[in-house]
Design a protein that fits this description.
- It is a single chain.
- This protein is of the alpha/beta class.
- The protein has helices at residues 3-7, 17-24, 29-38, 42-50, 63-77, 81-96, 139-146, 162-166, 202-206, 211-222, 231-242, 247-259, 279-284, 289-300, 303-307, and strands spanning 103-110, 113-120, 124-130, 152-157, 174-177.
- Helices cover 46% and strands 11% of the residues.
- The chain has a five-stranded mixed β-sheet.
- It is globular and about 65 Å long.
- The two termini are 24 Å apart.
- 34% of the residues are buried.
């Protein structure tokens, strides 16, 4: 009997949400980075042994099978933020776009907020997650920030919260629902986002870029070279110049610049070898080509190597 089938026979977390939160840490950036760069994770190892996961998984279970089984159970019993991020990675990024031209980034800093997921293709599309574990306290502030930077804005939520979201956002904001059962976005209820690109602010877009990026854009668009400006003055002077760029042009340049952050190689070389449960996590990792090969090899090893 497969690992996923065995886990499915009983509640994995019981009534303790703290257990679900602990298991969700297996999908965290810190744990996956440890696994990718070191071949094992002390953080994950502590959780694995603290909750006696050796009683649920055989020593021969591969790391990939472990993650798929754990993800399936989290999707049923503890739908934390990562479940939604992975759905965007699988159903939106990989399902609708080409990784040679599209790019996904999680936890994207925007005007003192952190956008859950941003997908960049021909334009920018930000996804804000509001699960049943979230509240709406910061939603107005978040959407206001996103309107200064992104073209398309969508809130992803549950069936139970669709009407609550709809009552709180204006008609330009898209709404998507992750189905209660299964692992897919519902066709109804659903609302398409309306383009916001005419309302973006060049000065706020500036702060989403790296120094090298905004200096290159200023030089290309305004023909101004700021390379010799002292470090103590470069931010303020560059921002004053960047703010003069037409907002729609600034947005297009931001999309182009951020998509280049993938590095010299394309993640499309490796993404199809990564298990379904780890698509979003993998896309957030900043790995060299050799580290990618090591990570993929680790996924084929048994869990005693990774969590021992």
């Amino acid at each position: 009997m497969g690992e996923m089938e065995r886990l499915d026979q009983s509640s994995f977390f019981g009534s303790e949400s703290t257990v679900g939160a602990a298991f969700a840490r297996f999908f965290s950036y810190s744990v996956l980075t440890e696994l990718a760069k070191q071949g094992h994770s002390k953080i994950a190892g502590r959780i694995f042994h603290q909750y006696n996961l050796n009683e649920r998984f055989t020593p021969e279970t591969t790391v990939a099978d472990f993650y798929d089984a754990l993800f399936m159970q989290l999707n049923k019993e503890y739908r934390h933020e990562y479940i939604y991020k992975n759905a965007i990675a699988e159903k939106v990024l990989l399902g609708k776009h080409n990784l040679n031209t599209a790019f996904m980034q999680t936890e994207f800093g925007v005007d003192c907020c952190k956008a859950d997921v941003v997908v960049l293709n021909g334009t920018s599309h930000v996804y804000e997650i509001k699960s049943e574990m979230d509240n709406f306290d910061r939603l107005e502030r978040q959407l206001s920030a996103y309107k200064k930077v992104f073209d398309l804005i969508t809130v992803i939520t549950t069936e139970n919260l669709y009407q609550a979201v709809e009552s709180r956002v204006d008609q330009t904001i898209g709404i998507m629902v992750l189905a209660k059962t299964g692992y897919k976005f519902k066709k109804t209820p659903y609302r398409e986002p309306i383009s916001n690109v005419k309302n973006v602010h060049s000065s706020v877009i500036f702060d989403s870029l790296h120094r090298k990026e905004y200096l290159q854009i200023i030089e290309e668009i305004l023909a101004v070279d700021l390379q010799d400006v002292p470090n103590t003055q470069i931010y303020e002077i560059a921002k004053s110049y960047f703010s003069k760029i037409d907002p729609e042009i600034a947005h297009a340049e931001m999309v182009r610049a951020i998509k280049k952050r993938q590095g010299a190689f394309k993640v499309s070389e490796f993404i199809h070898e990564v298990p379904s449960s780890l698509k979003a996590a993998y896309l957030s990792l900043k790995l060299s080509k050799s580290e990618n090969h090591k990570f993929l090899d680790l996924l084929k090893n048994n869990i005693s190597v990774a969590f021992g």
